[in-house]
Amino acid sequence: MRSVPVPVAAAIDVVCVLAFVVIGRANHAEGLTPAGIVDTGWPFVAGLAIGWVVATAWRAPARVVPYGVGIWAITVAAALVLRDVAGEDTPLSFAIVTTLFLAATLLGWRGVAALVLRRRTPAA
Question: Nearest Cα to 4, choosing from 120, 117, 119?
């Protein structure tokens, strides 16, 4: 099976995280200024980077298991810890929404990619 190039996979993951940040800021009427997005988003982007490194995702970045699951779990955990350390609230409801949204997006695109790549790859 062919795979998604590392830079493309990383870019899709960043888009997923930024979508979470933008949607959250919009839903809470916090404004969508670049400075506001950076202020809210840095723990999530940093968590994503940590997730990529710890999960060694560059080996097969589009695989759901183990790389996607590792990226997702570490991104959520690291982002919540970083937010807490930075003095931001991390109530349980926020942690649940974060976990579910990032699971749907970070794992979801990998699942779709696996199906598409499987269909396009000729049988051996």
Answer: 117
